[in-house]
Amino acid sequence: MTNDEAQPSAPESVPDEGLEAIERQEEAAGPPAPPRERLAYLGFYVGQEVYGLPLGQLREVARLTRLRHIPGAPPGVAGLVNLRGEIVCALDVRAILGLSPQAPADSAFLVALRDFDDPVGLIVDSIADIYSIDPEEIESPPTTWSPERRACFVGTIRVPVGMMGLLDVHRVVKT
Amino acid sequence: MTRLDTSAFIGKFVDEARDRLKALSVEILRLEQAAGTDQSLTDRAVGEILRQAHSLKGSALMLGLTDISHLAHQLEELFIAAKRAPQLLDGRAFDLLLGALDVLSDRIDRLGRGDANPIEAADLYQQMSALIVPAKASASEPPVESPSASRKAAMEAPEAGSTRPLPGLRHSLRVPMEKLEGLTNLAPELVLQSLKASERHIELRRLETRLSRLRDRVREARLASGASTSGHAADLREYADSLDAICRRMREFLVDFSDDRVRLNLITEELRQNVIELTMLPLSTVFDAFPRSVRDLARTFDKDVALTIRGRETELDKKIIEQIAEPLVHMIRNALDHGLETPAERIESGKPGTGQLLIWAEQQGNRMLVAVRDDGRGIDPNAIREAAIRRGLASATEMESWTPVQLLDIIFQPGFSTRSAATAISGRGVGMDIVKSVVVRLGGTVRLQSEPGRGTTVVLDLPLSLALLRVVLVETGEELFALPTASVRRIFRLAPRAPGHQPGSAVEVGDDGTPLIALSVLLQIPPAAIVESRPTVVVLEAGDSRFGLIVDAVQEEQELVFKELRGPLRSQRTFAGAALLGNGDIVPILDVQAVFELAAQSPAGPAVAAIEPRAAAVRRCKVLLADDSLVAGELQKNILLAAGYETDLAHDGAEAFEMLHQKEWDLLITDVDMPHLSGFELTALVRADDRLRDIPVIIVTGRDSIDDRRRGFEVGADAYVLKREFDQVQLLDTVRQLIGRGASPNAALSRLPGGTGPSAHD
Predict the structure, then answer these.
(1) How far apart are CA B603 and CA B593, in angstroms?
(2) A69, A85, A116 ranked by CB distance to B185: nearest
(3) CATH numeric code, A39-174
(4) ipTM for the predicted complex
């Protein structure tokens, strides 16, 4: 936890560095905080925007490989992925959040989620960083967003790379 | 004084009590059969009963479950009395005893579910005490014993029992299912890793070949340099020697590695087998309940039956065992109700008065055969014909050309029953179709053999394990799909097509009238780069439908570890599950019935309907929903619409009853608590109405007490679905069991008077 010398600096860190950042699970950004309870969030990019999930809700992050498309699946489901012998249902965050559709690139990641009876993961474009955030600073989603979009978030928070949307993971998986 | 927290032991007590009640049931039945014949057998049974009842009483008392201990004590008292006066165990006493076991089982089941309400069976206690008292008076010994003495006898009874060798102790361990599932997930992963090791081995061999080539070159170079003793030549000689040594070492390593790999493969395969066996249970877990149910059914139907059970120790996947219990009970009921004759009828036709019922299980390769055979009257082909015509399942002329097998097959159609008068036990013709649907869902088949006058045999052909599924891999548009082998009837190639032939629609007609469906068109998969000029057809059978699936190519048959598709993919029905192939790829497994339905709904769907061999089968079934909650009503309506049923919603019971009269309906689904007319009242009205009485009724409700369920069935409901457990799959399964998948035989015909509906007047 005291491994301070390897500060990931650039907001658009390369994916592998992003992964290393998770492993370190260290506080990477923000001014020195008062001794209040802070929460660690994984920030990731989908398109131009950065979204976040609490580390506690994640099982693992892996490169997206060999996505098997399932004909006739609901639009939010990109397909199935073999994650070390387990068949994981990979969700298309773009479709769920109503962003412009785009097939996942080779550099995409699967963020596998914890606490679901059946294995589920989100497809994201790249990993941004781990952010330690103060729950007090979470704001409600902007009223300019559509109600459908707002429903997918628990709130937003400022991080060095911009405004991070904190996903309501159960809501996202249900839709 | 603080009481010990006993709640932690309830689970263990429930398990133990179930075992004891099962043992008690077995012994009491044994006693009933041996009564008055073999004294030593009788004594042994009584000893065992006393031991079991006493232990049950003890554990119940410890946990403060006084009602259970009290009833167990009554049992004990009764048998202590019976030891002295065997005559008090008459037929009535056995009924009472088995009744008491039922009360106890129910109590234990409720306890297992967290319901701690005690037994209320004052009259049962009274009847049991009444049995004992006159016996005491008539016993040869003078009735000098005081209550405390009888209690003393009760305490001593197990002592006598314990001098016999202890019954075989089971060394077992309770493991949560999730842990086992974790293990079942890891086993295929190990298979995968060992496959990867094989690939590495090939790579190593390639490197070894290159290395030896390099060594040869170096050798040649050394020879070419001649006997020169210059520094270069000396170096070269040294290099050649070490290369030689490395090559030798490498070859040895490869041999060892290859051995390791073979061993790893063997161990992996064995581990996989062992893991599968972990989830297997002996069939005795269901079979042991049958002596009791056969006895009760024989009484109900006035039949005399000798039951033989074979193969109770054979093992089968726990999930399969759990699901076949109900179908087996259906089959046994059929055998006792329809199959076996009364003793008088049997003797008249020259048979022994006692009928033979044989239930047996046998493993054949990786299949398990479970069969029920009776030596009763067999199935009368004429009765089938008549019933089929009456129920509108086929016409007389149609059936003239049918083989006996085809004719028997009609028994599996929804709503078929050869008995015109329905009985309380065999239901309203809902029987063999349920058996078949359960078995097919498990990846098995049902075979029925019958010889008039000689008897009937029903064989369930089941896979050993649900985890493993035999599939045929097919390729279409460069993607692989799996089809369960159980539904594949045959595979053939189409005649070469005219160049440039484009399958414009999903549906074509084969030479024999079988509808052909192109999988690529159906699933909207882009065609492969190179289009096969002679596509392959896989003929599939699902439920009543038979159709050919056009694919680009058929690959091999494989046994795969089957995973259900759940979570966000739960709502789609095209695929039953998915599996991992040896190379780590995921292959989705098609649900054959759903593929057929998809074809019927596609733009070319009407064509499928038109050429469907049993022409009526794709008529859309009409379902009436009655629910005063708009949310619940609309939800169910959407589910039914999506599944291809025609659906209307009535907002209360009275409106539903009115709507029932306005149109022909195939099914009524009703809530219970509604204004104007409750679901129970509505169901009773439907059953009392000559025009509506044969419409199947499903009650969907939040009420889940046993009394409510009983009331539901008493008023004539065919199924009872709880809103608490409500989910789409369950609702659709229930609907399908009753009226089939969007497939209704001519409903108007099946509703003619003289159908098999019970009247609701009584």
Answers:
(1) 18
(2) A85
(3) 2.40.50.180
(4) 0.74
